[in-house]
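Data deposition worksheet. Section B asks for the primary sequence of the deposited chain exactly as it was used as input, without tags or linkers unless they were present during the calculation. Section C holds the resulting structure in token form. Section D is free text for depositor observations; keep each observation to a single sentence. Incomplete worksheets are returned to the depositor.
Section A, Depositor: J.P.
Section B:
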Amino acid sequence: MPVTHDKSHNIETAREYLRKAYEAGAELCVLPEIWNGPYATSAFAEYAEVLPGVGDSLGDEGGWGESSAMLMEAARSAGMYVVGGSVPESCGGKIYNTCLIVDPTGRIVGKHRKVHLFDVDVPGGIRFKESETLSAGEGATYFDVVGKSGDDEGGLGRIGVGICYDIRFPEYAMILTQKHRCRLLIYPGAFNLTTGPAHWELLQRARAVDGQCFVLTASPARSPPPADDGGNGAKYPHYSAWGHSTAVSPWGEVVATCDDEPAMVVADLDMAKVEEMRRAIPTGGQKRHDLYRLVAGDGS
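Section C:
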């Protein structure tokens, strides 16, 4: 979806994409990273909102912002799961890059605060420091999508969530797939024109093959630099997202994708492929714990 500096317009755009996903038959929809405003450290405070916590529903209104209210209303109206990309969250004097996960009743069933902040300085490419404004989250996030019969049969099963830069850390994905047995990993993201063409698809395929799971990503569409405003300068630095929202199979195949233009990617996931892959190449039971071991921290 395209993202502008107009928060109200972005919220209505996101609502429209969620409606389109429902009409396309989606049971779960993913929005991109920082969809309610510009991806700029200097903008996060202005666009930040108080967000609900896990277990909260629409009837529990506690002074939450309009972005989260829209996500909860849209999920309940459509009767589908919504992985709400991310928006800046204001909490306890800090700002987080936060993803809300909403179930089909409008209840919050997951809340992921980006755990790895995007602090990079690529010579000749991009310099960006999320830590100038944002604080890091402290936990791994996952939720369960059951089938219509109330169990995993016919459902997506356990789903892990990260945000953008989190995808570069295989250890985080390993916690989700090995400790929590996630069958699907979702990363809303906003890679740029330096890292996007080099690593965006590569990292998705790597996490899919490592975890023997599906991987889904959602990115904002690429937006053109603002037109000359008479020399007054834009309020916030322009950020060009790479786009290319994608779905990748446990075999590492791209099963659905798009380019950098505004688009909706629809994919039918055969979750049986996860267990099929894990049985065929059973790396989960072939670990050499005498040589190495996955040690989970308190937040996992």
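Section D:
The two ends are 31 Å apart (CA to CA).
The longest strand covers residues 94-102.
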